[in-house]
Specification:
alpha/beta, Rossmann fold, six-stranded mixed sheet, five-stranded parallel sheet, 12 helices, 22% strand
Amino acid sequence: MSKVVSILEKPRDIYEINSVASRYKSKKVLIYIYDQANYKFQNLKNYILEKKIQNINYKIINLKNINQLEYKWEKITNDYNIFVFPYQSHFFLCKKIRYLKKLDKKVVLLSNGTVNCLKIYELILSSNRVIDLLKNLFKFFYYKLVFPVDFCSYVLFPLKVSLAKKTYKVDDIKLSNSKFKQILINKRIDTLFVGSGKYPDKKTLEYYKIKNYCYTSKYLIKKKIALVNGSPIKLKNLVISEEILNLKNIKNCIGILSTSTFYALLKKKNVSIVDTEFLEGNFFYKLFLKLKFNRIKKI
């Protein structure tokens, strides 16, 4: 029987992990959550349990320090046969990939959004610093050539993940918060603002002729808040933009070049790119994302 172990860093990861579990009909999933400032452990745990698949036993552990896995590694490798690692893997995990491949274990990559759809040369040219360049070269050499990662369930499929042998589709992303969903429907919200560095002002709303909108960002997600027509709505649980974009009443998406706007484009929404000055990365990174975005838009 297939058993999955993974390290989760952000809310969207659970969809990729669940897709892996579904693909292999796993009945047991062990998830370690990084103890980090971005998202509180309990918030992520509640979010995972909200998205859980029926008939799967989830075990969720707060990972204080990546090296604490060292003491449990032998037992983990004996009990589990599918390992799902984040793209920004700690060197500890990179070293373990070689060991896992020798044991004929499946190694799956957790994506980190748009950066994973870049080709190898694009990824290297997009490096901001020398240290980033060295890290990207190492990942290419290690993940692609020496110990290739078996696959990645990618939220931006059919785009391909360059560092994985194969790329698969993520199972349906759905908004579980029925109360918030009903608010968006009742208020006839048809536009989602995502990822920009500032709230949509009156000038922006007039320019795009928007009357009813929802605004979300990483900062608001962490606070479990969304803005609906400028008013804050307190959420029971975390809500990510991809969940909102899957609602039928959402027709438009406005924001910076990001995983969310790429996802909206792939979902055939009307997408407008704004606030490009808030997009992190060097000249090449921004250029490659713009070119890829425009190519998808023409399809």
